[in-house]
Amino acid sequence: MANDHGDAGTPSGQAAHIGAHGHGARLDDATGTHTVGHEWDGIEELDTPLPRWWLMLFYTTIVFAIGYVVVYPALPGLHSASPGTLGWTSRGALAAEMKAADAGHAATRAAIAATPVEDLVRNTPLMRAAIEGGRAAFKVNCVQCHGAGAAGSKGYPNLNDDDWLWGGDIGAIHQTLQHGIRYPGDDATRASQMPAFGRDGILTAAQVQDVVSHVRVISGQEPASASATRGAAIFAANCAVCHGDAGQGNRLVGAPRLSDKIWLYGGDRATLTETVTNARGGVMPAWSQRLDPVTVKMLAAYVHSLGGGEAGPQADAAPIAAAPAAAAPAAPAP
Amino acid sequence: MTATDPGLAKVLKQKDTDQGSGALYAARAPVFPRKIDGPFRRFKWAVMALCLIIYWGTPWLRWDRGAFSPSQAVLVDMAHRRFYMFAIEIWPHEFYFVAGLLIMAGIGLFLVTTVVGRAWCGYACPQTVWTDLYQHVDRLIDGDRNAQMRLYKAPWTLSKLARRLAKWSIYLVIAFMTGGAWIFYFADAPTLSRDFWTGTADPIAYATVGVLTATTFVLGGFMREQVCIYMCPWPRIQSAMLDEKSLLVTYKHWRGEPRGSLKTAADPALKIGDCIDCHQCEAVCPTGIDIREGSQLGCITCGLCIDACDRAMAQIGRPRGLIDYCTLEDATREAHGEPDAPVLKTMLRARTLIYFGVWAGIGLGLLFMLGTRTRLTLSVAKDRNPEFVQLSGGAVRDGFTVKVRNMEDRPRPVELTTAGEPGALLYTDDMDERLARPVLNLTAPADTTLRLRIYVLGPNGAKPGPITFRLTARDQARGHDRGQDSTPSLFSTPEGNGQ
What is the pLDDT of residues A262-278, one digit of tens each? Predict the structure, then answer.
């Protein structure tokens, strides 16, 4: 309090307590208030009491603060604060808010749950909702491997492009999400095993190099060579069963197309040598074991919406994208 | 005012006495203005009627904007972030129109003040209008000045209580109508009115009405001139704005002083002036001042004292205008027996012309912007992650978030194209990639921003670099709209983004 003479807030008692004021204090005629006693260059300070309304407000805040300390967590302890009689916690408040938010989504989630994933049609409000829900779930569960923009990295596929190992229609994506890839804890997981051609002695080091040459030729990275011609024969005998005669891949076994511009691990000679020698086999968890079915569906919708989603199941890769479509029919207005 | 001014001298003398007593606080002296009739009172009636009609009537004016926008002529639609004023519709990003209007209102106030003094305070200010209204309620219930004063001093009897309750009830009804009308500017008036009375309106509507009812009740019913004298910053600003050519309500002391009753004035040796000290100018004053003390903060220049004084002068057969609108310059001239400066010369001075020029300039600028604004706009945000997507066939695809803002109240067919990347094809995330085409035909919904995910498929071997998105309306019916917009962006490939 500004008043250091002990009678703040008692204007009525002021006149009676002249002795309580400091040395040199006097009654100021103009205001009827005492001075505090000190003076400098003829300037004195009035000992004006605080306004009563202000003081009452101040006392009210003190009372409020005491009540607050009692009902809310306030006093710090070694491990936690005092609980408060209301039992309020910020974690509990968050949980309640999340519950309320979930309740707001309940109808949409029920509708998504009732709709088979293949029947989620583009450009419907339900699909839009599913995509947005999937976007949120993706940021929590998927970005660790596939990246915030779903662009992937070495060994983790880019989900924006049109190259799908196991299928790019929404049903196939959903299947992959549900059961994972080579995931030990799920019987329905997508499984295949590429042989370690070099390590297991199926091919010699020179043969591996010839196969690599062949792959680099069919993917348009190298001109034809004698090594590649030798490699073509080895490819036909060892690789074509999964990757196809022309290296076009096979989605039934998740064998990537080798004739395109997209490489999961890399298309340079060293990486391809490593791939053929020791084999590759990426693993993805079966998300139906960790997430509820609606969230998995929403993730499928989101991944399908990233630009490479295919309209329906396709036995083989989609047609090459940039084919001219100048004479295409009029697009529906979105 | 010079120190020789008798009014000022009286005030200074009064101040001395105040200091002597040591009291720094003066209780409010209640004001009971007497009823008066005259040209200025009638003008005040007219302005009050106009202000109240505009205030209460405006939300109920209808204006047909078609099926996609509200049909209320003046509407501040906070919920949908639109401001409608007759044919003009403003979006949040065009708030500078509102800012411009507010600046114009401010400068307009300066302009009016320079030309005719505190005309705003005297006639059009809501505080003045509602105070005036409430003072008429006082007269209606309690009678004119003398009856009001008697009742004020009378002890609290049942009859006084009844009269007070009746008066305060009318106060409350007016306050409620005032606060109640305000909310209709922010929602469809007929709908909100129905909702309001059936108890289904938004709580914010009831809260707003409650707060404004309370403020009107207190400010208009009880605080009145204290708002003008103690609370309002405008009189202070005006003290700095008035000059010797501003119109003030002036007591012509050179004509009126020394004062004396008619009886005293009969003695020619006393050289008594025209003022018969009848106090009618004080009695009618809505802020309770004595204009004969000179120009002062409490004078809102409503001219009611002029009406009162003119009436008194007419009764005793002396010329009108002992109290009159007069500039300080003319006051000095008249005091020295010179003619007034020509009105036009007083009005058309550099200050008023500059204010008018700035005011009109801003107004014309706003009109020009209004006429040339684009009501179909395009904005494009390029995907940053991933910046590009390599497709298996060798082509590169970039993603963009495109916003098409159609500010008109009708859906518009538009086409979206790109320039800078020859052979580029477009498709949305709702379309199959195989339907990608160079030109996307879309419909921009009425009065809304359409947000699209657009994929641009570069041709094989596309080089990174600038790409421009172009939006063109395929209907150019309305001549005032350019109907097209373009936005630059970048096309990225594994080689970079051309920068």
Answer: 999 999 999 999 999 99
Give the mean model confidence (pLDDT) for residues A15-27: 63
Q: Summarize pLDDT for A128-186 with one digit per residue, the tens.
A: 999 999 999 999 999 999 999 999 999 999 999 989 999 999 999 999 999 999 999 99
Whether B499 has a pLDDT exceeding 90, the answer reads no
Angle of the A170-179 helix axis to the A293-304 helix axis, nearest 10: 130
d(CA A291, CA A112): 15
Q: Minimal Cα–Cα distance from A82 to chain B, Å?
A: 37
Question: Domains of chain B: which residue ranges?
Answer: 31-240, 243-341, 376-491
**Cβ proximity of B394 and A322 under 8 Å:** yes
Residues B391-412, buried b or exposed e (16+ Cβ, 10 A)? bbbbbbbbbbebebbbbbbbbb
- How many independent structural domains does chain A possess? 3
Q: What's the topology of domain B376-491?
A: Immunoglobulin-like (2.60.40)
CATH number at residue A175: 1.10.760.10
Give the amino acid at B365.
G
The reply to whether B488 touches chain A by the CB within 8 Å rule is no
Could you tell me which residue, A307 or B365, shows the higher pLDDT?
A: B365
A and B: number of Cβ contacts within 8 A? 123
**A270 and A290: one domain?**
no
Judge if A272 and A290 occupy the same domain: no
- Give A280 to chain B, closest Cα distance, Å: 20
Looking at the structure, tell me whether residues A141 and A167 fall in a common domain.
yes
Q: For residue B25, give the amino acid letter.
A: Y
Compute the nearest-CA separation of B484 from chain A (Å). 18
| Same domain, residue pair A271 and A217 | yes
Strands, E assignment, chain A: 35-40, 43-46
pLDDT value of residue B262: 81
Instruction: Give the closest of A31, A123, A161 to B392, CB-based.
Output: A161
Range of the domain at A214: 205-278
Residue B469, helix vs strand vs coil:
strand
Q: Are strands B389-390 and B396-406 parallel, antiparallel or unpaired?
A: antiparallel
